Amino acid sequence: MNLNAPALPLALSVPVTVPVHVPALPLPLSSDSHGLGNQRTRESGTFTGTFTFTGEKDECDNTAMDWDDLRFVLALSRHGSLSHAAASLGASHTTVGRRLRALEKKLGVRLFDSTPEGFVATAAGNDMREVAERLEHEVLSLEGRVLGRDAELNGKLRVTTMDLLLRHYRPQFASFIARYPSVELTVVTSDSELSLLRREADIALRLSNTPPENLIGRKLGQLDFAVYASRELAQRVGPEAHYADYPWVHWDERLETRWLDSWLSEHAPKAKIALRVDASSLILREVVRAGLGVFFFACADADPDPELVRIGPIQPQFSRDIWLLTLPDLKHTSRVRAFLDHFTAPSR
């Protein structure tokens, strides 16, 4: 379960009395372009309401909130923008704005301030976020224990990884699908790590020398990295060339690039940046193979490529362990266990 889940389909409502301190704050009246609404003021006080987990509103209680109310508050608190919150919820940004304005009107308090850096929770918004996080933790913990009792090797399994590791473990993914056709496998490839705790994925296949302590798993191996060029570029620049003699491919400046900037300043201080690209290793590989520049690649991935050649030694400071990770509550789930066992079996 994650933030994309609908209201919990329980058979009865679970009333949770939540005191939320509300200081003297402006209140939203109507939508405008500067935030969630125009403003008026109410006195400070304490809101005490009921969270209803059936998804059914209590017509006699105008302050009743269901899980969806908290999901929207939690998403905007975490992401700071309507568009990013909407993406995490599988909704449109107009829906997020409309739901939050309705909630603010229902409670009679402003939950977020609009700033140049994005939406920032007010004191009341932070109170609701803390409550939402506690409820989310309890619900996800319950779900983990329930899923951990799963005895059938079928159903959905969601794995988060990066395209480099998906290519590296293609045979294992293919043989798992062939061996367990009743498991509905989804693989999400991204350089951004999805949260297993929030059930954005069941299993993570990651590069890390320090895996999170709240996850359990198995170390599959290690990837070493070195700088590669196309064979044609390496021949043109010459066998005695230094790193700075090559044109370089670099990350988009909007990404986190300090590690590469630091390495280049030490080993190739006058190197020309010929091209910048986004975070896709597939794009990087294609532009390097085309001779547009050089870049770091995993040796296990690039050494077999006949169009690439290593132009320097392995850089041990960039070596990373490969981990297959999951939550302790899910380790006995049949499909999770089958996936872990399949990937670590000697014959696979």
Task: Give keywords.
348 residues; alpha/beta; Arc Repressor Mutant, subunit A; D-Maltodextrin-Binding Protein, domain 2; 3 domains; five-stranded mixed sheet; three-stranded antiparallel sheet; 11 helices; 18 strands; globular; disordered N terminus
Structure, described:
- It is a single chain.
- The chain is α/β, with parallel strands linked by helices and 348 residues long.
- The protein has three domains: 18-146, Arc Repressor Mutant, subunit A (Orthogonal Bundle), CATH 1.10.10.10; 148-223 and 321-344, Periplasmic binding protein-like II (D-Maltodextrin-Binding Protein, domain 2, 3-Layer(aba) Sandwich), CATH 3.40.190.10; 225-318, D-Maltodextrin-Binding Protein, domain 2, CATH 3.40.190.10.
- Helix content is 34%, strand content 25%.
- It is built from eleven helices and 18 strands.
- The protein has a five-stranded mixed sheet.
- The longest helix has 25 residues, at 123-147.
